[in-house]
Amino acid sequence: MPIVRAFTLIRLVTVAHIILGYYLIARPQKLAEINSIAIIGDAVGLQQPTSHLWQNPLGAGFAGLALILLAVSDFVAVSSTEELARHYWGAQGPVRCLFFGSLTSYIYFMKPGRDKMYDQTTPQPIINSIIFSWAFFETVYWFWIYTNLREELAEARARITQRKKMQDEIATL
């Protein structure tokens, strides 16, 4: 039995997405000032975004709205019946973990100062400490959620089977 249930973790990630979406819409410059983002960015040698994040309010606002939409759809999915939600998140967990892990790896290996095969003068808007920190934390969260889903699987199957038996007994009465 995990310490924190998988669906609780998904709800926490959903709340984090809503908060991050709000900050992207209302005050994107605050994201660049968060100490943990600066520390993680400095630790891996990534640049801190200076002004392009809040000088492009259309891009930041669109990203914020996309995160809020993702959060709302995730909240609806996690609030559905347990059997349906377990199938959905059992498929979504590894896909999201792989995507964010790949994004984290891409940012790390393509950061400035490493030997690259592409033109160094080409600006890379996603290679910065904010995107890296977000992708890194998402990778960790989704790996944690996926492992919790796997740990809870036997327990959940027993509950679902018992619920179906009770429904069948009620239907036969």
Structural class: mainly alpha
* Spans of at least 5 consecutive residues with low confidence: none
Per DSSP E runs of 2 or more residues, the count of β-strands stands at 0
Report how far the terminal alpha carbons are from each other: 35 Å
Shape: elongated
**SS summary, helix count:** 7
Biggest sheet descriptor:
none
Helix content: over 70%
User: What percentage of amino acids are in beta strands?
Assistant: under 5%
Written as H for each helix and E for each strand, in order along the chain, the element string is HHHHHHH
User: Structurally, how many domains make up the residues?
Assistant: 1
- Radius of gyration equals 20 Å
The pLDDT mean sits at 87
User: What oligomeric state best describes the polypeptide chains here?
Assistant: single chain
Explain this structure to me?
The chain has 173 residues and is mostly helical. It has one domain (6-172). Helix content is 77%, strand content 0%. It contains seven helices and no strands. It has helices at residues 6-26, 29-32, 35-44, 52-55, 57-78, 82-109, 129-172. α1 (6-26) runs antiparallel to α5, α3 (35-44) packs across α7 and α6 (82-109) runs antiparallel to α7 (129-172). The longest helix has 44 residues, at 129-172. It is elongated, with a radius of gyration of 20 Å. The relative contact order is 0.16. The mean pLDDT is 87. This is Increased loss of mitochondrial DNA protein 1. Pfam families: Ilm1. It comes from Ascodesmis nigricans. The chain crosses the membrane at residues 6-25, 58-77, 89-109, 130-147. Keywords: Membrane, Transmembrane, Transmembrane helix.
